[in-house]
């Protein structure tokens, strides 16, 4: 490498490039030689000629000599085939319509998730895929027979009962192992839940309609950026005092309008809404500062969130706790 740099500096032109290419091709054919030894023939051929001939003529000569060398070694030199035989470059199909390496504008973020799924599926051998499909059919028949709900992700007790069922019916251990592997492979990643709580500190500073639109715009951007994520709106809690207004009744009406609007928006997007009907604006749940929760209030708040997330993952209600009709 130092010789190539020195030659490029002294002689100019692009003879150093052809020297380096042909030197590497020669080493690919004769790997036993020393990489530190200068090849005088190639040096005279490419480097010296480049310094005394016009650049176009030297390039043509180097190109012709490279073509001659190629005809002699193309059948044996893997290095040359890898670097120069462009006919062997395979076209890769894409799903983005007008996608090219130089113009990727045809590919969108949802396409990437679809491509991930395709790559995962194609990573399994065809015979293995057939076994996995049979595992899904068998598991579906088992849940129908014993009246288990069709829940995804699969609850642990469904899997343990399925294993016990296969053991009871005399299924071979190797088949049990293959079927469980098939279920594991077939389970799509559980959508991530991302919970958002607006604490209401800027209520009264910004008009309710403006704040509502800003929050919707923000959540729309979050949805576009976080693929496979389900949004959860955790409602703004009541207060005894508000930062920008002494009219607690008016502020509470504004709070309720924001909660109602954002809950409806997120549910339409496939998300969920957490309510806190047990937390009231009084000293039992709100501290003396009129803002923060007491220990009892915090306990109810965290317990409600925990129950909501479990419910959303298991039977996926729109709202927790569900509104009474």
Q: Any overview of this molecule?
A:
- One of its GO terms (molecular function) is DNA binding.
- There is one protein chain.
- The chain has helices at about 1-10, 15-30, 40-50, 55-75, 80-85, 110-120, 125-145, 155-170, 175-185, 210-225, 250-270, 295-315, and strands at about 190-195, 230-235, 270-275, 320.
- It is mainly alpha-helical and about 325 residues long.
- The protein has a 4-stranded parallel sheet.
Mean pLDDT over the full residue set? 74
Task: Assign an overall shape.
Answer: flat
Radius of gyration: 34 Å
Percent of residues in β-strands? 5-15%
Residue ranges: pLDDT <50 for 5 or more in a row?
A: 50-59, 65-101
Biggest pleated-sheet summary: 4 strands, parallel
Distance between the termini: 80 Å
Number of strands: 4
Report strand order across the widest sheet: 1-2-3-4
| Total DSSP helices | 12
Please give a quick description of this structure.
By secondary structure, this protein is mainly alpha-helical.
Keywords:
325 residues; mainly alpha; 4 strands; 57% helix; Core-binding (CB) domain-containing protein; DNA-binding; DNA binding; Integrase_recombinase_N
Walk me through the topology:
Blueprint: H1 2-11, H2 15-29, H3 40-52, H4 55-73, H5 78-84, H6 109-122, H7 126-145, H8 156-168, H9 173-186, E1 192-197, H10 208-225, E2 229-234, H11 248-268, E3 272-274, H12 295-314, E4 319-320
Parallel strand pairs: 1-2, 2-3, 3-4
């Amino acid at each position: 490498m130092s010789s190539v740099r020195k030659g490029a500096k002294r002689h100019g032109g692009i003879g150093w490039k052809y020297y380096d290419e042909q030197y590497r091709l020669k080493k690919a054919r004769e790997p036993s030689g020393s990489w530190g030894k200068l090849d005088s023939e190639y040096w005279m051929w490419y480097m010296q000629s480049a310094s005394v001939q016009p650049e176009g003529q030297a390039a043509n000569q180097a190109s012709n000599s490279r073509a001659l060398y190629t005809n002699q070694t193309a059948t044996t030199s893997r290095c040359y085939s890898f670097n120069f035989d462009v006919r062997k470059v395979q076209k890769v199909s894409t799903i983005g319509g007008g996608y090219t390496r130089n113009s990727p504008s045809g590919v969108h973020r949802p396409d990437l998730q679809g491509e991930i799924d395709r790559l995962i599926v194609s990573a399994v051998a065809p015979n293995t895929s057939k076994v996995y499909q049979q595992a899904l059919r068998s598991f579906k028949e088992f849940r129908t027979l014993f009246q288990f709900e069709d829940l995804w992700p699969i609850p642990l007790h469904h899997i343990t009962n399925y294993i016990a069922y296969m053991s009871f019916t005399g299924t071979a251990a190797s088949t049990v192992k293959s079927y469980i592997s098939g279920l594991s492979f077939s389970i799509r990643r559980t959508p991530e839940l991302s919970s958002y709580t607006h604490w209401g500190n800027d209520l009264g500073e910004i008009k309710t309609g403006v704040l509502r639109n800003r929050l919707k715009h923000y959540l729309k951007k979050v949805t576009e950026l976080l693929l496979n994520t389900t949004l959860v709106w955790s409602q703004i809690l009541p207060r005894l005092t508000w930062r920008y207004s002494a009219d607690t009744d008016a502020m509470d009406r504004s709070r309720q309008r924001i909660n109602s609007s954002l809950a409806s928006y997120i549910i339409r997007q496939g998300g969920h809404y957490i309510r806190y009907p047990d937390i009231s604006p009084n000293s039992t749940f709100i501290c003396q500062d009129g803002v923060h929760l007491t220990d009892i209030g915090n306990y109810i708040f965290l317990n409600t969130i925990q129950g909501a997330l479990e419910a959303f993952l298991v039977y996926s209600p729109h709202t927790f706790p569900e509104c009474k009709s």
